[in-house]
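Record type: monomer structure entry
Structure origin: computed from sequence
Chain ID: A
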Amino acid sequence: MSERLLQPERIERVVVRGANWVGDAVMTVPALRELRRVLPAAHVTLDTRAWAEGIFEGADFVDEILTLEGRGARALMTRARCWRARRFDLALLFPNAFAPALAAFAARVPVRVGYATDGRAPLLTHALSVPAWRGERHEVFYYLNLVGELERLLYGSNGMEGRRPRLELEVPAARREAARALLREAGVRDARRPVVALCPGSTNSRAKRWPSERFSMLADMLSERAGAQVVLIGAREEREVSEEVASQARVRPVDLTGRTSLAETTALLSVIDLLVTNDTGPAHLAAATDCPALVIFGPTNPQTTRPFSELSEVVRVPPDCAPCMLRDCPIDHRCMTAVTVEDVCARALTVLERRRAGVELAR
């Protein structure tokens, strides 16, 4: 039965359960692109969080975005009913959790593909083993492997081997111009001076935060040494830490924290000169929009979750206890306090000089 169902011409409607965090959602982009290649005629629905519309807006590898918010049994049954009504032929599950598999099973989706994690293998028609290399390779390849194994089930071979993952997200000219207008309205008006965004928060881990006073010092240094116009960005939940940074700086940055949608943040990153950030979602958005970024890592593992871009640079001084993956440091936060303002500033100045030289060469 499974072999008959896995005939490509019979798979007309595909639902992909998307990732639950901004960074993870961006890291699924190469896999979604490959899914379009593997099933070019299928209608692909991405079931994801409402905020993710700001990431995938206008993407040519997704036909429809479905947002079903809520938690618990009621939300699960709502998803199952919705999927069943849409008569999907295939469910591809990016998250490792039990609930997405249960929803696909309850919706009676004929082909259910995902990793055999969280005790959910009996709910899947094709439960894939977690690759032995997980934890050693970037998470981009973990998602890509799902699509590669699906391709093997459909065609008997994996056509992704040797292909470079494509992470980039196209930001249309109109959205880029709207981002420039937003910056001008906020007070960033001198086109001759570089624009640097700082993202000092992190919504899901206090341990990932470089001290706010160091972001303040960095803002002042970049203003003084590079003439930079500094902008603070982040989610609504990060307003407090951004205010700490702004209030401690001698030259108060423009604070856009919580004032932009994810789509606007994505467009903003596509028009600025540099992002300096903790290990957060905007770091991955920068990678997808060709924005140079310095990403300060402490408790997390850059080998697997760094931004997937040659324009992104990891700043890290790891102690023996890193990466610990803890959300709160039980000792003295040495992984983050070891990163000095002078080091980050020096790297930022190098990036800005390289970018300025590139602009001049392009003229």
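Annotation 1: Residues 1-5 have pLDDT under 50 and may be disordered.
Annotation 2: DSSP finds 15 helices and twelve strands in the chain.
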